[in-house]
Write a structure and sequence with these properties.
Elements (H helix, E strand, L loop, with lengths): L6 H7 L4 E7 L2 E7 L1 H7 L3 H4 L4 H4 L8 H5 L3 H6 L3 E9 L11 E12 L5 E10 L1 H16 L2 E7 L4 E4 L1 H6 L20 H17 L3 E8 L5 E13 L2 E11 L1 H27 L1 H17 L5 H27 L2 H4 L1
Antiparallel strand pairs: 1-2, 1-5, 3-4, 4-5, 6-7, 6-10, 8-9, 9-10
Helix pairs in contact: 10-12, 11-12
């Protein structure tokens, strides 16, 4: 039964910007374009039909002129569908754009052959991959700036993969191919390796997520602390591996240690203020009171003043010790 499906309507309505070009001696004549391509170019289809492609679009500001002018050479040479990769374009193509108008398109060229096997038409289509590109850029940025990486472990084949961010944490080349065996060099000790695989085995057995802190030694000999979070990969109720994230928390732990040291110092200061300072100060107050009562008795004055001086010096030493604990050494020089 002959189909009543109207292919021209389908071509016009598909969301992917597409244009049909006829190959001739003068270049590439625009035979037709769909509505999405018209919106992308801000030109009516009538204004595009019959025009030579490079006369209508002589340049692309985001593609080198030589590459732009040779856009169709690969499909003519190889005589098969060609993926030109991702290209950056302004959408719509006008002079009042902002960075929000920058779009990324994956460009495909599909050859249409005549009865003699020669390319008669080329269908040029553009797939909007802007969101994927943005996500990839954000991912790469996070890998670089946050000391954050990803890892994968295939328990069926005993293989593993590390992201570039993870390799940066370990201070190894991006070409490094990890394996169960080669990974052993980065564990701080055998106990750390055993602890990691124990967490992995328990997560696989229970099909649950795990979180652990691991001490490692980088390729440059630096000790780092990693927070590892792993999640089982379940296929038809069977765990085939693990995937997870690794975050370098060395600086965070150092900061926590610093806070704990400050807390201990403050605790010592509180003890000194409540015990060590109060005792000599109480004696000074008592001596002063005694001086008031015995001031005119003569011989005892010298002894009392000596005792007062000793207690004052004792208090001075305690205060100096408090300052030493709360101020950097540079400030005391």
């Amino acid at each position: 039964m002959e189909s009543n499906f109207k292919y021209i309507q389908f071509f016009k309505s598909i969301p992917c910007p597409s244009v049909i070009l006829k190959v001739n001696n003068n270049g590439f004549e625009i035979v037709d374009a769909n509505d999405a391509y018209s919106r992308l170019c801000t030109l009516s289809i009538a204004d595009m039909k019959g025009k030579e492609f490079f006369e209508l679009f002589p340049i692309n500001p985001y593609i080198y002129p030589d590459i732009w002018s040779d856009s169709f050479e690969s499909v003519l040479k190889e005589k098969k569908a060609i993926n030109l990769g991702v290209r950056k374009l302004v959408s719509p193509l006008n002079s009042h754009t902002t960075f929000l108008d920058i779009r990324h398109y994956e460009i495909h060229h599909l050859p249409i052959f005549d009865t003699e096997g020669r390319i008669e038409y080329i269908v040029r289509s553009l797939t909007d991959v802007t969101q994927q590109v943005i996500q990839e850029e954000l991912y790469n940025e996070s890998q670089t700036s946050a000391q954050y990486g990803n890892w994968w472990l295939n328990s069926e084949q005993n293989t593993m993969e590390w992201s570039t961010g993870f390799k940066d944490i370990l201070e190894i080349s991006h070409d490094f191919q990890p394996s169960i065996e080669s990974a052993r060099q980065f564990y701080h000790c055998a106990e750390e390796e055993a602890s990691f695989y124990k967490s992995v085995d328990e997560a696989i057995e229970n099909k649950t997520m795990f979180k652990t802190v691991l001490s490692i030694i980088t390729a440059n000999g630096n000790q780092r602390w990693l927070l590892l979070i792993g999640k089982p990969i379940i296929v038809e109720d069977i765990c085939v591996g693990m995937r997870g994230v690794a975050k370098d928390i060395t600086e965070k732990l150092a900061y926590i240690d610093q806070i704990e040291n400050q807390h201990n110092n403050l605790r010592d200061i509180a003890f000194a203020q409540s015990h060590l300072v109060r005792a000599p100060l109480a004696r000074i107050l008592a001596l002063v009171q005694h001086l008031k009562q015995e001031y005119n008795e003569g011989p005892s004055e010298t002894t009392l003043l000596d005792a007062l001086n000793h207690s004052a010096k004792e208090l001075d030493l305690v205060i100096h010790d408090i300052i030493r604990k709360t101020a950097p050494e540079e400030m005391l020089r």
